[in-house]
Amino acid sequence: MRMMGLPMIESEPDFMIHGVLKYHAFGQELWISDTTVGAWIVTAALLVFACFVRKKLKNVSESDTPGLFQSGLEIAMEALENMTQGIMGANSRRFINYIGTIFLFILLCNVSGLFGLRAPTADFGVTFLLGLFTFFIVNYQGIKNRGFGHITSLFKPIPILFPINLIGEIANPISISLRLFANLLSGVIIIGLWYGMMPWFAKIAIPAALHVYCDLFSGAIQTYVFCMLTMVYINDKME
Predict the structure, then answer these.
(1) I want to staple 32 with a disulfide (CB 3.0 to 4.6 A). Which of 16, 21, 128, 219 is the partner?
(2) Residue 137 in contact with residue 148, Cβ under 8 Å?
(3) 42 or 203, which is more confident?
(4) How many domains is the chain built from?
(5) Alpha-carbon distances, residue 111 vs 114, 211, 223, 228 (angstroms)
(6) Is residue 3 in some structural domain?
(7) Phi/psi at 65 (5° precision)
(8) Structural domain boundaries enclosing 225
(9) pTM metric for this prediction
């Protein structure tokens, strides 16, 4: 079929969040969406990987020659330590487990599009919760290390700047969550438009380059940016 002399689009672009299962709780209609399913799959993959690593390294002694798998883990761990120490210094030991966990979770969510999933981080509900958790850690460390001075610092250098300082504190988690969400959503939209609007022969091989850039390259960059800003915000409240 043709419209106005042009071939009609073969399929509609699809980059929306879809409901998978509907249920009712507390008198409300709730949905398990593809974002939820993707986050479950990523979490399950991380748990399986963690159990496999623990089993693999449990009986390794210092005299054993490291294999390829162990060497790769040591390189990754050293890179994580260098990243956290470069930003947090002596405080890195306290937060390396948290930073490593969210780094792996966000990275796997970002690259899940390579495996046919809709990236969970392309849903603002996911990135906002990650930013909110960072917000709680930042303010907990501020109160723990500075006491009431954490509150009074909002009135410095002059009291009239309190509203601006308060907005700045609240804007930090929103900005990092929006940055991650927007970059991942743009990739989902671009790929969705390509698959939905291009003819069938353009969907072979060519989208691989889009997936490499939008899912792998951009996903890795945004993971690093989110973790780096999280460490900067936390370290700012440390002694």
Answers:
(1) 21
(2) no
(3) 42
(4) 1
(5) 6, 9, 10, 19
(6) no
(7) -80, 125
(8) 18-236
(9) 0.85
